[in-house]
Backbone:
């Protein structure tokens, strides 16, 4: 029993397997979008609470059993707790704010227990095919390899249309309703690892490492952000006299100023001390003890 219910993670600590309760949906979000998702003063969360009062949104600042998350981890785990019929309303607000890159296709990554992946795919791919056909040709990909030291797989949903993307995500969540809570699983804790060493997991580390910043926008515009972390520099300079981005994302100066103004430091310093502690309990559905949400209302 002990071996079945306990796993050792990369940090060497013991991680209990947990059951995901029915109305909790877990997502993998890029670290750099966390503040955008929360909104200034928690305005996004407050707005969602006004739309779906029974909802709860948490982005975890700590791993399982209070373990520390590396400051340069490229992703965070976000959970949304709400009735399935209300999930679309919440995602309509969140999906645009969860994007690593502005413009183009919308990219959402769900965390699905290993034992539920077959339910997403369906017999001979029937479920995925049906969802794709009924949601404006959404791309849905179930990654074969679990995230490091976990039993959770990324299911990627991509679409250029917000309504189609949200509907596809909700349909994927609905497809695993009957199976996801049947087994306890080891939840994923954000980590840093060498790209490719765990296969193709669909993590944001495998996406973000490939990109530096983009060009500046408009005449004299600010240059693009630098690479996500420990990565190549930012892209070309802004038009006119604006300076281009030229450094990595973490703890570095990475964007040019406007029209020769002093460059702005947009590094993202992850400081758990500035966050609001949520319920310090052992709810298996939330999956992590002593977790921190942004913020808890």
Residues:
């Amino acid at each position: 029993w002990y071996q079945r219910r306990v796993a050792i993670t990369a940090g060497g600590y013991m991680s209990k397997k947990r059951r995901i309760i029915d109305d909790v949906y877990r997502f993998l979000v890029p670290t750099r979008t966390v503040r955008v998702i929360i909104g200034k003063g928690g305005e996004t969360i407050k707005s969602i609470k006004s739309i779906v009062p029974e909802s709860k949104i948490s982005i975890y600042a700590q791993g399982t059993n209070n373990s520390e998350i590396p400051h340069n981890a490229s992703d965070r785990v976000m959970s949304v707790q709400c009735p399935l019929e209300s999930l679309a309303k919440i995602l309509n607000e969140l999906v645009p704010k969860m994007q690593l890159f502005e413009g183009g296709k919308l990219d959402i990554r769900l965390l699905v227990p290993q034992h539920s992946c077959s339910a997403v795919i369906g017999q001979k791919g029937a479920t995925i095919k049906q969802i794709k056909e009924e949601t404006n040709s959404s791309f849905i990909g179930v990654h074969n390899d679990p995230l490091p030291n976990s039993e959770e797989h990324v299911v990627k949903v991509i679409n250029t249309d917000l309504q189609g993307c949200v509907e596809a995500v909700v349909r994927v969540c609905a497809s695993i309703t009957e199976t996801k809570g049947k087994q306890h699983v080891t939840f994923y804790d954000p980590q840093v690892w060498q790209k490719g060493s765990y296969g193709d997991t669909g993590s944001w580390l495998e996406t973000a490492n490939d990109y530096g910043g983009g060009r500046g926008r408009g005449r004299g515009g600010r240059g693009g952000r630098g690479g996500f972390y420990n990565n190549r520099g930012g892209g070309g300079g802004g038009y006119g006299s604006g300076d281009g981005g030229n450094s990595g994302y973490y703890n570095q100066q990475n964007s040019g100023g406007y029209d020769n103004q002093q460059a702005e430091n947009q590094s993202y310093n992850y400081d758990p001390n500035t966050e609001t502690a949520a319920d310090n309990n052992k709810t298996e559905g939330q999956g992590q003890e002593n977790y921190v949400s942004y913020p808890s209302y």
